[in-house]
Design a protein that fits this description.
about 140 residues, alpha/beta, Rossmann fold, 5-stranded parallel sheet, 5 helices, about 15% strand
């Protein structure tokens, strides 16, 4: 069994956080939740996070600044930024993906996560199959 990928999920709204956590865990991910940007940054520094999924609006360190800090520490870590209002969000971001809340299907979020994690891991290495010896092929 392959090891679970760890997603750091950050949202000031505990209900939204809980819903995302259940959705991701039922798809086989290990989910670490935080309700604030500063708490999430401290957790990220401990290591073991494969992807960050954060809300934009949070007190203190918002999602955009959190992603910026994480990318400074680990540029290869994929990050998804969610925001409640698209108009509210008009500044530049270091997020790999931006999704407006309520404007995407959960399956779209799951697919974006899958693609970002595959991209982070890199392409699968080609499996080399052992060549059959001439004696084995003539026996067939």
């Amino acid at each position: 069994m392959k090891p679970k990928r760890t997603i750091l999920c950050v949202d000031g709204n505990e209900q939204s956080l809980s819903i995302r956590k259940v959705m991701l865990e039922t798809r086989g991910y290990h989910v670490v939740t935080c309700t604030g940007g500063q708490e999430a940054l401290e957790r990220f520094k401990k290591g073991g996070v494969d992807l960050v999924l954060t809300d934009l609006t949070m007190p203190g360190l918002d999602g955009s600044k959190l992603i910026e800090e994480i990318k400074n520490l680990s540029p290869q870590t994929p990050a998804i930024l969610l925001a409640g209002k698209v108009k509210l969000y008009d500044r530049d971001t270091k997020a790999d993906v931006f999704l407006p809340k309520g404007m995407y299907a959960p399956v779209e979020l799951l697919e974006r996560i899958r693609v970002l994690l595959v991209r982070k891991r890199g392409p699968k290495r080609a499996q080399t199959r052992p060549q059959a010896s001439p004696a084995q092929t003539s026996a067939a």
